[in-house]
Amino acid sequence: MSEKSPKLRAELDGIPTYKPGKPAASGGAVAYKLSSNENPYPPLPGVLESAVAAAGNFNRYPDMACTGLVAELAERFGVPVEHIATGTGSVGVAQQLIQSTAGPGDEVIYAWRSFEAYPIITQISGATSVRVPLTDGDVHDLDAMADAITERTRLIFVCNPNNPTGTVVRRAELERFLDRVPSDVLVVLDEAYKEFVRDPEVPDGIEFYRNRPNVAVLRTFSKAYGLAGLRVGFAIAHEPVAAALRKTAVPFGVSQLAQDAAVASLRAEDELLGRVGSLVCERERVHAALVAQGWTVPETQANFVWMRLGERTADFAAACEKAGVVVRPFAGEGLRVTIGETEANDLFLHTAEAFFKEL
């Protein structure tokens, strides 16, 4: 009898693999991980304690509706509880959004380069990616994205600030773009790095969601709140979209540890703002130092900087790793460097200065 392999979906053929930031080397010289946009600070006050308390009951299923967390978020953002849906990080909710809107024959539009999970989760759904190149300044080309809309378009991602470039779209241009999008196409404002924004012209996506039923806002506790290892994110969207997200969520996907830690993090906002402020100051210092060295680096409103190095990307990444700093290269394009501890940032800047002199 001939043996055949199980039949798998053709959409999975050639699917790109998500590449996490390379971990810092263990043992030997000190190595700093600046490759995953993680928060270098330990958990906020009260967060670890809440997680430890919840761990005592992990023989039980978590609250599938995330009732306590949803109530806290609804109060924090001034939205109905029915307009909030949770998931395993903002990327988990992003996948739920695509599952809710797009399938074979449908199109999902996003800028490129942008968050590398977009093409993966789009292809998994069987939908077609429509990638719109960034401008020469590494910013979303919203006019071109609007021009790319067809009758098959179901969802558009706008990553603001954009990962991995850190660049932003501002209020007036985003409003013009939204005015051009048909009301039956969902626009997802992916704001994973919202807390790091200091440009007053960069809007809070929630202000657009309030009177536009086709706008949803994505947020996460992984970045500013420092809960990357617990996997909890959420969307704010009008009831039909939020209800669809609850239908497509993995049952019990957000652990009770994550829920309780997220609530404790929201209640430690003063401490959070202080930490984020310190990281923003370091971001400005690193950016200014790179410009002073001679690099062309786009303005960033996230917790990382982007350096377009083309064919020298791998060489610079290797130089950083040799110096004890792990960064995130995108082969042939550039690299993203997370703002970390002051010592790590100094080590990176020293490496960048030496590398630039050899160009």
UniProtKB/TrEMBL annotation:
Family: Belongs to the class-II pyridoxal-phosphate-dependent aminotransferase family.
The protein's name in its UniProt record: Aromatic amino acid aminotransferase
Biased composition (Basic and acidic residues): 1-12
Ranges for region Disordered: 1-25
Protein EC: 2.6.1.57
Summary of the function given for this chain in its UniProt record: Aminotransferase that catalyzes the conversion of aromatic amino acids and 2-oxoglutarate into corresponding aromatic oxo acids and L-glutamate.
InterPro entries on file: Aminotrans_II_pyridoxalP_BS, Aminotransferase_I/II_large, ArAT, HisP_aminotrans, HistidinolP_aminotransfase, PyrdxlP-dep_Trfase, PyrdxlP-dep_Trfase_major, PyrdxlP-dep_Trfase_small
Class of enzymatic activity (EC top level): transferase
Keyword Nucleus: no
Gene for this chain: hisC
